[in-house]
Amino acid sequence: MGMYKKVKSGVYSLTSFLVHGRFKTAQWDFDHHVVPPLSSTSTFRLSSAKRATKGFQVFAEGDKSFEKPPIYIYERLDEPTRSMLEDRLACAEGGEIGVCFASGMAAVAGALGVSVEAGQEIVSHHAVYGCTYSLFTNWLSKRNRIRTKFVDLVKPSNLARAITSKTRVVYFETPVNPTMELIDISEMCRIVADANESRGEEDRIRIIVDNTFATPCCQRPLDFGVDMVVASLTKGLCGFGTDVGGVVVTRREFQGPLLLYRKDFGGVLSPKSAWNILVYGLPSLSVRIKKSSESALEIARFLENHPKVKSVAYPGLESFPQADLATRQMRDFEGNAAPGNMVYFVVKGTANSSGKRAEKMVDHVANHAYTITLAVSLGQIRTLIERPASMTHAVIPEAAQAAGHIEPGGIRLSVGIEEARDIIKDLNNALNAV
Ligand SMILES: *Cc1c(COP(=O)(O)O)cnc(C)c1O
Predict the structure, then answer these.
(1) Is the pTM above the cut of 0.85?
(2) Among 109, 153, 178, 366, which is least packed by CB within 10 angstroms?
(3) Best of 234, 237, 380 to mutate for ligand 1, by most ligand atoms within 8 A of CB?
(4) Helical (H) or strand (E) element with 345
(5) Which fold has domain 286-432?
(6) What is the pLDDT of residues 297-337, one digit of tens each?
(7) CA gyration radius for the chain?
(8) pLDDT band for position 402 (cuts 50, 70, 90)
């Protein structure tokens, strides 16, 4: 309410908003709380049958306003702790509403579920998160007759060629996992707006962007005109590696369908997880990202000069092929360049030897490093390392890996908040051992 208006009008920054929230909210009277309460009840006492009827009616209309006292009925429909988190996430992403799901994948499924139906098509970038790829190929395509066309959206001209009269969704992640290539969000929006010009309201193509890698701290796709942002809360938004969750942030018109989808498929975020993200994850997001991004740049520079490293991809490096796009698209809440905390690098060698070396390197890290952990996931306070070709992206056939520039010698690093020189020391030891 008042407080958010002051944030919007620029009196206070979003960084401060993520710490304090609205101060006063219709979701809960916590005039006497400094920390928002963790509400934990599966059902809610209704004071009259009339009030219950009104509650169901409001829910069915999807009319969930953060400014009106809600009528809570049952946890899976709506409840206060999660609702406060949804509000804060919506503000961070620059959207009108947020709907939280049990995991990032439940959020991806929800965003797609309310946007496409049987017989229609999705155009997706060819390299996407493994489970998203599996959702497209194993479920939507095989069981729901929703076909996905995979194209290389790093080259925007490929999009216009892939769109048909059946296309309803354009889907991508940027930066692309793990290669850190960028997709030009403005260009995607321009091409889709062109295609939508001749279409009726019902047939319009929506753009859905997975913003997990960047987090709203480094990039807000809705500002460029996309329709929905999805994110895994499990990664940078939670930040401590303690909870699993997901969110869809979008315009108010999609709130009703998303709540209905969540209610019926049941993949709802637990209030206990919501509370951790609301109380620890979001308030610390800006400092965590700032610290880990500064370290990521230092580490990327170190790697660039290491004799065992063939190439480094980090959007903050002068040598980054899409450096201009990175500065245009990846910005923090204050408008400064924000290249994020993910680094991808390739170990030198032939196709065969570089893969073996990369494996040896991560094994060395697993056995000897103090600040780096061999583990999947990302965006945590701890630095995590993994080898995409044999781990996160192993399900992708070799030819498709090559097409997506995922090399056998590639290594993905999610930089944490340890001292950069300690991370560099551990990396140096591991690289020198291969
Ligand atoms: C982890 C991840 C997901 C899935 O999130 P879960 O919370 O693990 O379900 C989706 N997209 C990207 C880019 C991810 O990194």
Answers:
(1) yes
(2) 366
(3) 234
(4) strand 342-347
(5) Aspartate Aminotransferase, domain 1 (3.90.1150)
(6) 999 999 999 999 999 999 999 999 999 999 999 999 999 99
(7) 22
(8) confident
